[in-house]
Amino acid sequence: MRMKGRSRRGLASMVVTLMLAGMLAACSSNGNGPSASGESPQADGNGKPNPVTLKILFPGDPPANWDEVKKEMENRLADSLNVKLNVVFIPWSDVQQKRQVALSSAEDYDLIWDNNPVQNIAAGLYEPLDERIEKFGPDIKANRSTELMEANKVNGSLYAVPLEVNFIRPWTFVIRKDIREKLGVQPIKSYQELIDFMYLVKEKAPDITPYIPNGTEHIGLRLAGMLDPKANLAAVLNYPGLYTKGNDGKVYNIFDDMDPLILQNFEQNHKLYQDGVLAKDALTLKNTEFAKGKAAVSTFNDFGINLSTRTALEKSVPGASAEAFSLYDPSLKLSSTYKAGNFIAVPVVSKNKDRAVQFLNWLNRKENYDLLAYGIEGKNWEDAGEGLYKPISENPYAGVPFAWGWNPKLDRIDASLPEEVIALNKWQRDSSNFTKDILAGFTFDPSPVANEIANLNNAGTEFYNPIVMGLAEPNEGLAVFKEKAYDNVKKVQAEYQKQLDEFLGRA
């Protein structure tokens, strides 16, 4: 598939080149100024790397003990790459908007986290990395499978390093274990048992909200698909109303081809909402409410309970504890597209492109990855055997490798998690446990229907999300959503199918 954004990329690159050329005169007397290629000189006359500060855009808030870990990283870097780090943390609520502002204004970032880089690639805002990774990134390549690297290319080139440890995107229900035990409920083993528990919480513990899921992603088509995993239901990117099923290479919409599993899920969520089990303000609340002790059940993108959530919950509610319940089953032979959920990219305006890739490669070495992900060994964590670690509860560091280093070969699993959770995590990281999805390697170019996608997303926020979250009666809500969005759904569906057919050689 070829992206129509190539012409825009050429224009963007030309503009950037002219901008940098105009800066050369002002910077030429400075040993750290950019060269004619827009790249800062790599070394002084003695072969020592010139000092460089890499500016990195990062989602969320700094983890506890971040300053200490950052200092240790810079100490190690001083004797090798001579790099200092200017990591700009942006709250999740603002990160998408501020990332686009930074890119459109050519702000001087050297590395940018992106969870969906396709549009920025099409706009020519990210640098192709193949040659630099070949030259400077042997560890980047060594720690990622060929399937992962190839499936995340666009137009045959890699514009952003895929950050992923899983061959599927995990998610789980997280439950207040202390409340379950107090109510005399046995460990949850099925979705129906989970629903029964939430109703019991409403009856017996009215001071806590039974269920606050983390948005539409977790309780929409993903949950519907898990009601029958063999159906292979999946949302089409984040386009409301479009989905795939059966690994048949076709795109469906919920107006002309409503799958019974999807409708059943909408109806179940609406009942939970009507009965006061699902939070009344579920459209705005997220899983952070669970860590505050305000929900008995929530959803997370993990198989277990991450360290930051456990730590925050225990601080908010002394004596509280949590456990996970997953609908995934290792006996299932699910399909995988090998698409990453996170990426790290180098903006075309960066003056330190080589050093940025060298730094990413540095992060992909075991001792450095351990520091980034788990903190200082002996202070924040202990080695618990091959592929495992044990956090030190008195001084925890909830690392954030997902946004700049994540890879399946170096990432460790928390040894304090239950055995079944460790087993699920190991299962999801082994490619032999999955079959190749027909969409593997396909990247949709949204530019031909950019206006329709914008209109569809706006309509989705207003009319589709309330259906998924149970606020609207499904049939009534779908009628309104169809009136507002049908034409846009059909146009996006047709373009997606056209490109997919071209990719599959069926055009």
Automatic annotation (TrEMBL):
PANTHER family: ABC TRANSPORTER SOLUTE BINDING PROTEIN-SUGAR TRANSPORT, ARABINOSE-BINDING PROTEIN-RELATED. Residues 439-504 form the DUF3502 domain. Residues 1-25 form the signal peptide. The lineage of its organism: Bacteria, Bacillati, Bacillota, Bacilli, Bacillales. InterPro entries: Bact_solute-bd_prot1, DUF3502, SBP. The keyword Signal applies. Residues 30-40 have a biased composition (Polar residues). This is Extracellular solute-binding protein. Residues 30-54 are annotated as: Disordered. It comes from Cohnella thailandensis. Keywords: Signal.
